[in-house]
Write a structure and sequence with these properties.
globular, ATP hydrolysis activity, ATP binding, binds magnesium ion, 4-stranded antiparallel beta sheet, 2 domains, single chain, alpha/beta, Rossmann fold, 6-stranded mixed beta sheet, 9 helices, about 260 residues, binds adenosine-5'-diphosphate
């Protein structure tokens, strides 16, 4: 396995994943720099979600390993990986539809208290009032405060996605993985999600974002990796990716705005 430089918080090294005869991921070497927003783009079926699932422990790689801050994740259960400070927003929101929106946001904060991952080790028990306040602030930030008493199941698809983002953020992860966070959103909701993600960028949280919408990608990404047919065909700064002829040919249809 290749050496991991010190500012790299996550390193997927030589990862392969086969589903039967299908090579979903081949020769993946992905390095994510701490504090940065790293976008993974590529056509449908390229292997983007599979790569995220390998990172969070939902899918075991056929070979290779993923290392997070010096800890080998491969072989660990998803909840153990989550407790190390990795959260993921799924492509399909996973919320508690019969609970009020506010309780949906509070629940992961309670789970956080007993976890190995704590931002403040000197304050092991937070009161329910503190957590409620934090959840209300979070709902304000994502524009859902007015819906806090409604059942989460009654929200629109776009609002459910934002709720799920809030449920991840309240865990205060060190690494946040987002699988198409703006899919199914209106342009207005997409823009407010970009604003929210920009806000958390300044908090130093590392983010990996899978996204189809190039407006979102180029608004947020510090670095971009391009997946095609299970391989990373290019990795670099947004400007480099825009100008890379291989990327234009494989994915971007000849020109990028
Ligand atoms: P993307 O997220 O880039 O659209 P995926 O990672 O979902 O792509 O899928 C990559 C390839 O792996 C596709 O050909 C898909 O059909 C296949 N695939 C994904 N998950 C499974 C699975 N659980 N079993 C078999 N094939 C799968
Ligand atoms: Mg996908």
């Amino acid at each position: 396995m290749s050496e991991t430089p010190p500012n790299i918080i996550l390193h997927a090294a030589d990862v392969h994943k086969n589903f039967g005869g299908l090579r979903a991921l081949s020769d993946i070497d992905l390095q994510i720099e701490e504090g940065k927003t790293h976008a993974i783009i590529g056509p449908n079926g390229a292997g983007k979600s599979t790569l995220l699932n390998v990172i969070i422990g939902r899918i075991p790689p056929t070979s290779g390993a993923v290392v997070f801050d010096g800890t080998v994740l491969t072989g660990k259960a998803p909840y153990e990986i989550n407790q190390l400070g990795i959260s993921r927003v799924f492509q399909t929101p996973e919320i508690f539809p019969d609970l009020p929106v506010l309780h949906n946001v509070m629940a992961p904060a309670f789970a956080r208290r007993d976890g190995a991952f704590r931002i403040n080790m000197f304050r092991s028990v937070e009161s329910e009032g503190e957590i409620r306040q934090e959840a209300e602030d979070m709902l304000n930030d994502i524009g859902l405060h007015g819906r806090r008493e409604d059942h989460a199941g009654s929200l629109s698809r776009g609002d459910k996605r934002r709720l799920e983002l809030a449920m991840c953020l309240i865990q205060r992860p060190r690494l946040l993985l987002l699988d198409e966070p703006t899919a199914g959103m209106s342009r207005h909701d997409t823009n407010s999600t970009i604003d929210l993600l920009r806000k958390i960028k300044s908090s130093g949280m590392t983010k990996v974002i899978i996204e189809h919408d190039m407006h979102v990608v180029f608004s947020l990404a510090d670095r971009i990796s391009v997946l095609a047919q299970g391989r990373i065909i290019a990795s670099g700064l947004p400007q480099e990716i825009k100008e890379d002829p291989r990327v234009q040919e494989a994915y971007l249809g000849g020109s990028v705005e």
